[in-house]
Amino acid sequence: MIETIRVGEISLALTRKDIKHVHLAVHPPSGRVTLVTPKGTRQEVARAFAVSKIGWIREKQAQLREQARETPRQFIERESHSLWGRGYLLSVREEESKPSVRLSHRRIILTVRPGSSRANREAMIHRWQRSLLHDAIPPLIRRWEPKLSVKVAAYYLQRMKTKWGGCNHQAATIRLNTELVKKPKDLLEYVVVHEMCHLIAPTHGEEFVALMTKHFPSWREAKIELNELPLAAAVWKG
Questions:
Q1: Is 183 exposed, middle or buried (CB count within 10 Å of its CB: 0-12, 13-18, 19+)?
Q2: Boundary residue ending a domain (66, 94, 118)
Q3: Would you give the DSSP letter of residue 73?
Q4: For residues 107 and 83, is the Cβ–Cβ distance under 8 A?
Q5: Are 86 and 52 in contact (CB under 8 A)?
Q6: DSSP state of 5
Q7: Are the C-beta atoms of residues 2 and 13 closer than 8 Å to each other?
Q8: Using CA atoms, how far apart are residues 218 and 170, in angstroms rounded to an integer?
Q9: How many other C-beta atoms are found inside a 10 Å radius of the C-beta of residue 191?
Q10: What are the tens digits of pLDDT across the range 163-178?
């Protein structure tokens, strides 16, 4: 059961679980605040803890508000696009030939038919980006399955506004945000490992933290880096 605590202008979602330590988090991109406490913690005790951390909460929310948000792309000549953590210029070529996308040095070469619409160019780029993820993800899963002693039944790509990934523990499936194609590959690996660890430990409790610390010691640094990178454009079509 989730309760709401108000501390001044800030609302916190309070959840009690079978854990030993308190977990306070401010989530991107909106600055949503969650507080997870051990079972039996009284609401007034939880609220007192939140009050003691109010300065930290406000600081984190301010950082998220100031964080750069990627402006919507227009898919035009010499527009900047990110791929695996690097910037590339888009080169649009109109030709009476089969549409295609390819990399050439620091450029993304988009070949389209004359008069191609912005929507068509965007769809082509997104299909190409998904294909890159489909090339990159299976080897990561195969690498980590024996290390974690788990089996991923399937993975899915999805455009998500607030999460980098997700896990269906019972079905043994994981979901990954298509925006990860824009981030460094080591951060993609972090998210893959994160979600695979949830196949063992469904929550972010002590077991999960121990797994991540054992198998991916730099996970905390990766999490911070990922959440400090520019967010996707605010207006998405799905």
A1: buried
A2: 66
A3: P
A4: no
A5: no
A6: E
A7: yes
A8: 27
A9: 22
A10: 899 999 999 999 999 9
Structural domain range at position 164: 80-228
Predicted TM-score of the model (pTM): 0.70
Domain final position from 66, 98, 114: 66
The amino acid present at 198, given as its one-letter code, is H
Residue 21 main-chain phi, psi, to 5 deg: -120, 155
Domain match, 135 and 173 both: yes
Write out pLDDT tens, residues 26-81. 887 678 899 999 998 999 999 999 999 999 998 888 877 765 566 788 999 999 99
Shared domain for 140 and 222, answered yes or no, is yes
Residue linked to tokens 């769809």: 123
Eight-class DSSP state of 205: S
Q: How many domains does the chain have?
A: 2
Q: Residue 150 is encoded by which pair of tokens?
A: 């788990």
pLDDT at residue number 163: 84
CA end-to-end span of the chain: 29
Structure tokens at 192: 């893959």
Q: What are phi and psi of 226, to 5 degrees?
A: -60, -45
